[in-house]
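Extended Data, panel c. Modelled sequence:
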Amino acid sequence: MILVTLGTQDKPFSRLLEAVEKQIENGNIQEEVIAQVGSTPYTSYRMKIIPYIPVENFSAMLEKANFVITHAGVGSIIKGLKKKKKMIVKKKKKEYGEHVNNHQEQILENFSQSGYIIPLTDFDKLGEVIQQLKDFTPREFQSNQTKFVEGLEIQIENLLNRR
């Protein structure tokens, strides 16, 4: 099973679903595809479309998935990485009304350069990127939460010492 997730924000991302659908039509995807589409209006007889999946069900689907195709949302990426999933990630773009700005560009670049995911830079190349997954081993996810908290503690301490 392949899990496609577009996140839960109110911005549509039908371009990614269309690309997946095209790969099913071309025979490059032959297994079941479940798509969590959020607010993206989309109908398909080739994919199982679910607007919102409860957290516990999403976790179980993620566990079962052979790989994940997702938008460049930090939450979606980290959930997949924690489950050690191979992930294909495509950024949403402001100019298509898919997001409020283009911050997903930086998210995609950072996770890609760190070896966590395979970026999808061109929808027409999705079939090729799916083939790349066979030889791709994602880097094991390491959270920078500890480093963030340490930095925050130093800043708070510096503020308190200024008094």
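The chain is about 40% helix and 15% strand. This feature is highlighted in the accompanying rendering.
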